[in-house]
Amino acid sequence: xxxxxxxxxxxxxxxxxxxxxxxxxxxxxxxxxxxxxxxxxxxxxxxxxxxxxxxxxxxxxxxxxxxxxxxxxxxxxxxxxxxxxxxxxxxxxxxxxxxxxxxxxxxxxxxxxxxxxxxxxxxxxxxxxxxxxxxxx
Length: 137
Ligand SMILES: [Zn+2]
What we know:
- This protein is mainly beta and 137 residues long.
- It has one helix and eight strands.
- The strands form two sheets. Strands 6-5-4-7-8 form a five-stranded antiparallel β-sheet. A three-stranded antiparallel β-sheet has the order 2-1-3.
- It binds zinc ion.
């Protein structure tokens, strides 16, 4: 169960497809139809070539740990210590998230470790895409 008080994202028309996806258990990214660039966060045009011909597709959910910091101060909704991580998705884009299913320590959080998306329902409208080590159940 989520802890109370965690700040949650507010879906906008530009990000609604993403939040619909996480609720459906899918990590949805956008790909430019003109230059094939895959990007995140959601926006209605390609950040590389500015084309508005973009498509939403279901990503693999695989990623690797790109970087992280471990916070030791309490923040509403989090019990310290906890890691704020940046993961690099298999499709290329990077995403800020949390790592679950393992200790929040430098020994357990190894850069480049393989991760899988783990959806965590927060409310009836928001399910967050978190990541867990690939070998964790
Ligand atoms: Zn493009």
